[in-house]
Amino acid sequence: MNIRMISKLAAGAAVIALTAGAVQAQEEVEVLHWWTSGGEAAALNVLKENLQKEGVGWKDMPVAGGSGVQAMTALRARVTSGDPPTAVQMLGFDIKDWAEMGVVGNLDELATQQGWDKVIPAALQEFSKYDGHWIAAPVNVHSTNWLWLNKAALDKAGGKAPENIDELIALLDKFKEQGITPLAHGGQPWQDGTLWESVVLSTGGMDFYKKAVIELDPESLSGDTMRKVFDTMSKLRTYFDPNFSGRDWNLSTALVIEGKAGAQQMGDWSKGEWLRAEKKPGTDFVCIRFPGTQGSVLFNSDQFVMFDIGEEKRDAQLKMASAVEDPAFQIAFNTVKGSVPARTDVPDTEFDDCGKKGMKDLAEAASGGTLAGSLAHGHAQPGAVKEAVFDVVTQHLNGQLTTEQALQRLPEAVAAAQ
Ligand code: GAL
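A: This is the predicted complex of the input protein with beta-D-galactopyranose.
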């Protein structure tokens, strides 16, 4: 073999190696997400395994922090350094923001081929599409106005689920008498905001929620109904345990699971923790709409946004988006996660009673005009407004603002953030 032949062979080997490398790289997705609790990770595993069956590898980029606050910071750093991940878990207005920057991929072809237009509800399409183009694949629909109760504690307190704030307060008093923490709350701005939006909905009803939170009407943000909201927040604060500050949501759920606390106000991702602990709805725990919010649904939907990172990644991105919209996956994932399907054509048979209620409530709220986006989970306002509200709500809850001051601050902070 002469030198020329050897170098030709070597070049050929290099080409093969390169191609093999490219194929391997093509068939992997790097996924940025914040699903790090036990229930969340179990749900995400369903997707990982499905993709593996399709020959698509999974590079995990978990960024802990409920509601994705830290994940979005990590994403900004990755995009700024010119290295966005393949796919990113994202909520509502954040999707719009990234789409506006022109850095996300287009999923139109797949969406058309699979008829997404017909099966994804309009409330979700509002965020899955930008400028008429599909740019995200919705995984689920979560809802935030839920209350999770320890069944044994509830039974001991008489067994009646509270239907309004007064009944809730009476129940929390009974939990107090039992010597347990009445209300397990984690003091983080997004959790304070999640509690606040349920209290807003309960106090003023859906029309008021829409006026105050969606339309940002200054009078609604500072008037008598909002005064009641802040007074109720102060009252609820008296039922927290001394260690609530900064606690992650799933640790609060654990307190209720263990019977150390009676109840938790939280979105239905909380159910994922109960199921992970092998607890059953109706036997070990009870899921009810946050008292006074029956018939209304505040929703948020986790969606996967595919970043525009070149043709060689596209095949894996499309496989992932397609796996996410597969009806069988929608059942397998959402029954573990606590959410309900993002598609309207998935039967509820495999879902437990809380899941069935979630699906029914969502369909009824969508047709009856009592469905609205969750502020705390990115579906009511862009990030700046959401954070402005969090600031006021958290400071008030921590006693740094009186109700009077909060009522003055709220419309001011919101106006400044717009
Ligand atoms: C929500 C998200 C859920 C869950 C929760 C707690 O914003 O939609 O999937 O992860 O945060 O982290």
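Residues 143-298+355-417 form a domain with the D-Maltodextrin-Binding Protein; domain 2 fold (CATH 3.40.190.10). The pocket of beta-D-galactopyranose is lined by residues 34-35, 40, 66-68, 91, 142, 249, 269, 300, 302, 377 (CB under 6 Å).
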